[in-house]
Design brief:
Elements (H helix, E strand, L loop, with lengths): L5 E6 L5 H8 L4 H10 L2 E5 L2 E6 L1 H17 L8 H15 L1 H12 L2 E2 L4 E2 L5
Antiparallel strand pairs: 1-3, 2-3, 4-5
Helix pairs in contact: 3-4
Length: 122
Amino acid sequence: MSKSEHTRYLELTPDDHKRLAALCGPVDDNLHYIERQLGVEINNRGNQFEIIGIPHHVDHACATLKQLFDGTKNKDVVSKQDITSILRATEEIDDPSCKERERKLIEATLKLRDSVIKPRTP
């Protein structure tokens, strides 16, 4: 493990085997998909997960796993589309460049006497 890598432990509760099976997918395909998308390593035993990688990516993977696990309350299967949409949503929340872009948009707002003019695109 290099100095830039970080390890984080995550325990998903309740320890429900059906929900964990839906989260991980057949032969852990969903976990492998998240690993490839984020460049992290995910090891699990039951409801305990170990995520290894760059700190920002590890945090992103933890947030994704938590949201996917919460979604298994109402679903029996987690699809690749579900994973992709959650990855994009959590990336926008955590991505510093998105926050910087949002700050620039706020700065670009024109305040007039009767209205406010805001840019539509960055």
